[in-house]
Amino acid sequence: MPPRRKQARDLPDNLYPALDKRDNVLRYKYRDPRTGRQHGMGSDKDAAVADALALNAAIYASMANSRVANIATREPDTPMLSAVILKHAELCEARHKRGKLAANTITTKRSHGEAIRRALGHKPIGDVSVLDIAALLASYVDSGKDRAAQAVRSEAIEIWKTAISQGWIKENAP
After folding, report:
1. N- or C-end of the chain: fewer Cβ atoms within 10 A?
2. Per-residue pLDDT band at 173 (split at 50, 70, 90)
3. 116-155: string of b/e by CB count within 10 Å (b at 16+)?
4. In a 3-state reduction of DSSP, which class is residue 42?
5. Tell me: the pLDDT tens digits for 10-52?
6. 45 CB-near residues (< 8 Å, 6+ apart)
7. Closest to 158 in 3D by CA, of 99, 98, 95, 97
8. Alpha carbons 139 and 170: distance in angstroms, whole number
């Protein structure tokens, strides 16, 4: 990171002076280190410095706590839903090669599996709840796609059967 400019050297981290060209008044802006968004802090330097110090203390403390929590939490016992969907797709491909599934069926299964992956693939399969699946299906129903919701539900059931058969989960929750 480059060194701070001369007029900002006496300011705390994430606080910057900004000359408003509309009325030539020096105002201060605070840049949130988490998001990069800037927030106006007014033209009173002492108040802006005090607020910036308080914000820095609160934000950096919460960031440290979240890093510690992420490190302290153990890895999930179950694989990610996206990995289960990939395994399910491999098994379907194998059934297709044995002549048990048609090519169009494989394409449809891939499409529905991809919809589930986009919505919930970031979660471990053990953490996916019935409410998660219900919300996904409700989005289809709300769009007037009742038949697609039914097909995605059927594919989700097949994916959970695959997860059970692989020993990744014990019950068919969704």
Report:
1. N
2. low
3. bbebbbebbbbebeeebbeebbeebeeeeeeebbebbbeb
4. strand
5. 899 899 999 888 899 999 999 988 888 899 999 999 999 999 9
6. 28
7. 95
8. 28
